[in-house]
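thread: overnight batch results

M.L. [08:02]
morning all. the overnight job finished for the chain we discussed friday. pasting input first so we're all looking at the same thing
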Amino acid sequence: MAEILAPVKKTGTKILAIPGNHDIFDGWARKYKGDTKERIAQISPTDFKEFFPDGYKHATSTDSASLSYAIKIDKKYDFIFLDTNEYPIQTSRAQPHTGGQVKDETLNWLEKRLQIAESKNKVPILFMHHNLFIHNPLVYKGYVLSNAQTLKSLLAKYQVPVVFSGHIHAQDIMKDPTGKTDITEVVTSSFAIADHAYGELKLTPGKISYHRQTVDVDAWAKENKMTAKNIRQHNAYLKELFFKDGQRLAYQQLLDQNVRDENILAPAAKLVGEVNYNYFTGQDDYSSKRREQIKQSFAYKELGKYSPFLQKYIDSAINDTNLADQKLVIKP
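M.L. [08:03]
and the structure it wrote out:
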């Protein structure tokens, strides 16, 4: 990743990185050659700082208990990068831990940073891997911080307006669902899956603006005279891959229930594929009419008979009515 981002760094742009749950001492660390895979050296916390030195070199403060650090952006804003991962202290053969939490020592360090920001009348913005809120009522265990309530109370105390996170790979923007704080969390979908998304954050003294963007590989391929179909029509290729992945999930679930009728399998799989793609790309702002159409459809009803889990997943995805997921404006 450091090599891939090197051209960006050469433009003078700082690479401010924070690890995710697969990065440090990952027992699954592999490299691939053709159809074979090999174990490779695992990344230590020291390695991470060497590969991504900018954040630590320019930090106003670093946490001794984790890879967290704080950076002064300008007179108005501070960025705080919070290491929320649970990883071993040495090389491991175990799979990476999915869940996360903020250590007590790191919470103490964070509060000091927030106190300093408050004393200088600055706005702190937080970045971390794990989620602060439950973005999907069906899929959240291992994704939301185990001590999320403690962190939320701390952020509310110092009026942190927005938190950026990842981990669930799905695009979603949510205000505190309890309504007790003004915190908004932005989860940008994974760049590694459809449709190569990233978040663009713009800051002015009176406004925080976020906009989801995507990389147009098709245009790049045309400009560079690439001929391979999967590159030339990469956006459609990615979408088809993701659709098929959702359809595969439906087929697997239904076949496990001994459903063999293609008249049931095909429409159910198509519905799951469509809803799954829209959910992960943040295009799940269904109208009440469209939600009702889905719930009255043959495919939805058949899923209810043979796979209540998938029907509940459809419900969770089409009933996401918290905020528009593509952009956000906050006036701190």
